[in-house]
């Protein structure tokens, strides 16, 4: 199995050999931001959108960007070229860097950039053919508060514990509830419901990472004259929906057929979800030139 390639501050190393300091604040405190995207036919999809969101995330956490988006993009290209042919999972991380062992972020002044091209591990085909189950739960994440809201900060502990709990309940994704009981998003995805042909997804608000896949799906739906609205989605809306699906850069558009053990719609992936998934893949093919 290829281990992929990693670029650390522009220096390329084998995936197995890549190392950062134990004093790096990303390691010690999750004091870093990141992006995840993938390639299709070797070409990254929506790379600019991801790198622009990375810059916004860094701003939120007051981490100065060490290089321009153009430099990062050319380093992504170099990492992919070094990794070789085929498709890759790409993670770009900006950490605040190293400093004395103190919480004060102003003590670290040299942010570190890491680009990882790792083997792409995709969800099983049956998740798309039969759909997945989700579990609803409360979880409080660092990005729920005003300062870090909207940032893709690396502290995913609450999200990964939510996924653990979901898996224990036989579900494949956790859906996080806000303080008013509304559904915000998945642990690493955005959620959509379909009711009488109309699509609804929670509006951007603190606690939601406004996904790049979500934005693409909204564009695809508009082009296909499928009605979409951004608004509150409550657990009962999900339970009574005709269809539901989650979106993320790696999972693309994935049907959801049950929530907390309750069947959604017919219990099978629905026609609107299927159309949006096809439209999404077509948008990816057009943007990357890949045959999907
Ligand atoms: C918390 C969270 N919400 C939503 C998403 C979906 O974002 P995107 O479509 O940009 O991959 C992710 C992706 O990892 C995520 O971690």
What does this protein look like?
By secondary structure, this protein is α+β, with helices and mostly antiparallel strands. It folds into two domains: 5-119, 2-Layer Sandwich (D-amino Acid Aminotransferase, Chain A, domain 1), CATH 3.30.470; 125-288, D-amino Acid Aminotransferase, subunit A, domain 2 (D-amino Acid Aminotransferase, Chain A, domain 2), CATH 3.20.10. It is 30% helix and 27% strand. The protein contains eight helices and 15 strands. Strands 7, 8, 9, 10, 11, 12, 13, 14 and 15 form a nine-stranded mixed sheet that branches. The protein has a six-stranded antiparallel sheet with strand order 2-1-6-5-3-4. α6 crosses α8. The mean pLDDT is 97. Pyridoxal-5'-phosphate binds at residues 36, 185, 188-190, 209, 211-214, 247-249.
Task: Identify the notable features of this structure and list them briefly.
292 residues; alpha+beta; D-amino Acid Aminotransferase, Chain A, domain 1; D-amino Acid Aminotransferase, Chain A, domain 2; 2 domains; 30% helix; binds pyridoxal-5'-phosphate
Specify the number of helices. Answer: 8
The total number of structural domains is: 2
What ligands does this structure carry? pyridoxal-5'-phosphate
Per CATH, the class of the largest domain reads Alpha Beta
Distance between the termini: 23 Å
Say which CATH homologous superfamily of the largest domain is assigned: D-amino Acid Aminotransferase, subunit A, domain 2
Largest sheet: 9 strands, mixed
Helix content: 25-40%
What portion of residues belong to β-strands?
25-35%
CATH topology of the largest domain: D-amino Acid Aminotransferase, Chain A, domain 2
Q: Which residue ranges are poorly predicted, with pLDDT under 50 across at least 5 consecutive positions? A: none
What general outline do the C-alpha atoms trace? Answer: globular
Number of strands: 15
CATH architecture tag of the largest domain:
Alpha-Beta Barrel
* Classification by helices and strands: alpha+beta
Question: Secondary-structure element order, as H and E?
Answer: EEHEEHHEEHEHEEEEHEHEEEH
């Amino acid at each position: 199995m290829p281990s992929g390639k990693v670029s650390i501050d522009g220096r390329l190393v084998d995936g197995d050999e890549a190392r950062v300091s134990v004093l790096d604040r990303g390691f010690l405190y999750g004091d870093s931001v990141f992006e995840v995207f993938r390639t299709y036919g070797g070409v990254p999809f929506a790379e600019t959108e991801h790198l622009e969101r990375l810059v916004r995330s860094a701003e939120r956490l007051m981490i100065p960007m060490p290089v321009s988006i153009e430099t990062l993009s050319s380093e992504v290209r170099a990492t992919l070229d070094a990794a070789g042919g085929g498709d890759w999972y790409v993670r770009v991380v900006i950490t605040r860097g190293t400093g004395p062992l103190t919480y004060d972020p102003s003590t670290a002044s040299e942010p570190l950039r890491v680009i990882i091209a790792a083997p792409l591990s995709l969800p099983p085909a049956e998740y798309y053919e039969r759909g997945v189950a989700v579990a609803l739960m409360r979880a409080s994440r660092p990005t729920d508060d005003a300062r870090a809201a909207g940032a893709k900060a690396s502290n995913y502990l609450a999200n990964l514990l939510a996924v653990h709990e979901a898996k224990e309940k036989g579900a494949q994704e956790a859906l996080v509830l806000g303080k008013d009981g509304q559904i915000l998003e998945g642990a690493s995805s955005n959620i959509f419901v379909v009711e009488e042909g109309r699509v609804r997804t929670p509006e951007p608000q603190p606690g939601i990472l406004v996904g790049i896949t979500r934005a693409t799906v909204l564009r695809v739906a508009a082009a296909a004259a499928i009605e979409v609205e951004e608004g509150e989605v409550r657990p009962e809306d999900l339970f009574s929906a005709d269809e539901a699906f989650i979106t993320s850069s790696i999972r693309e558009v994935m049907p959801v057929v049950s929530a907390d053990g309750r069947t959604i719609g017919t219990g099978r992936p629905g026609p609107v979800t299927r159309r949006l998934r096809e439209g999404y893949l077509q948008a990816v093919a057009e943007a990357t030139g890949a045959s999907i």
